[in-house]
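Teaching assistant here, posting this on the class forum so everyone can see the example we discussed in section. The complex has two components, and the goal was to see what a joint structure prediction looks like when all of them are supplied at once.
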Amino acid sequence: MEVAFYLSGLVAVLATLGVITNTNPVHALLYLIVSLIAVAIVFFALGAPFAGALEIIVYAGAIMVLFVFVVMMLNLGESVVAQEKAWLTPKAWLGPSVLAAVLLLTLIATLWLGDIGKVIQGDTLTAKEVGTTLFGPWLLIVELAAMLLLAALVTASHVGRVSPPEKPAMNQETGARKEHS
Amino acid sequence: MNWLTPQVLAVFVAMAQALAILLGAVLLGAAMTVVERRLLGLWQDRYGPNRVGPFGSLQLIADMLKIFFKEDWIPPFADRTLFLLAPAIAMASLLLSFIVIPFTPALHVADWNIGLLFFLAMGGINVYSVLLGGWSSGNKYALLGAMRSSAQTISYEVFMGLALMGVVAMAGSFNLREIVNAQEGLWFIIPQFLGFCTFIIAGFAVVHRHPFDQPEAEQELADGYHVEYSSMKFGMFFIGEYVGMVLVSALTVTLFFGGWHGPLLPPIVWFALKTGFFLVLFILVRASLPRPRYDRVMSFGWKVCLPLTLLNLMVTGAAILLTTPE
């Protein structure tokens, strides 16, 4: 399990670097998907298969599909790649990278000083345990998240309202319909 | 011979089983192409392909030879990497889903606690094959097909997951083996009839079978997302669709029709018979229904199926709470 953890962690880091440095938007999104799947495998290696499966279903399977969908519809061509290349100058990335490197050093130092022996061990969590924890001690958080999501849903359906009111996920579809009519 | 310990033997048996299931799924998917044409011919009162071999039984081999020897062309305007990646995703994500299906008490690849979630995750990954295939082709028809497909698949995956939650709640597990065992007395088709209806509709939509084959509607979109594909890369999409059919049929049997349970006959025969029934149903639906308009498909999903699945889940939850002793 430890090997799987480190390997997929490495993949996640490298893929995330790929997201930042890649100039083609769709390729960058693909790197992000790889990164998310790698994080899911990290969850599996840590003994949380339920969280890992949800990571793939929700992030890689639904949210990223919408991202790719929108980028596809924008019909970005060679000009965007050139523009991205022009923007990715040392002047642009040097400052943030130095700051991020300081944060990374702090993170590594903290991990180094803490006891890392306990990290990759423990029992495998089942979906039932996750459920009883979520709807037991953390019920308030779950309800708050539900209210927030409901508010977002209402807002989205109001903002995305065309002549007949539609649900938020229909927005993608109306765009597609306009395109082919 | 001291290396042949029981553990090593068990590993070999497991590997042989996995290989048998993989080959079985691919071959059955390939064979379904011919079976479909013959059955369509039967129902439409004409002969299907009946020239190659006795009753056209060797048509599959002829088709395979043809598709393997076609020119494998990558359009110069295509995004090469993604163009190559897309058919691989199409095939791999569907084949991987077979890992979690228990065919008989003994025959399975892996017995996971998150079995059903794994299938949903692979279904989510499968969307990318169409999406990337359509986009990387650099063709407007392919792009339109891909966009329709992804919108349709995402909408239908939402309530596909919800439709299955009733079964999960009744069996108390995501593990497909435990779900099958929970159906020993009563198949879930009876208490979960709404769940079954919505799941089978979503299943049709997710594997892009008729009447939900919007992404590749021939009349409007030439051939949709795989219009630029040729030779075996097209073959992967094509066989992938049939492998998806086999997968959804096998899952329907596992989740709603008691898996391998049945009187008299051995478990594998029962599983094969039930799966075969749903495969024929897939083809019968294609032979008999017209293709609805795209926006109707979308609003049917969101306005009819999603409320139905939510209702089903609520009633199931209430029934379980009422009948379970404190």
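For the discussion questions: Residues 15 and 34 of chain A are 6 Å apart (CA to CA). The first helix of chain A runs from residue 2 to 21. Think about how each of these relates to the inputs above.
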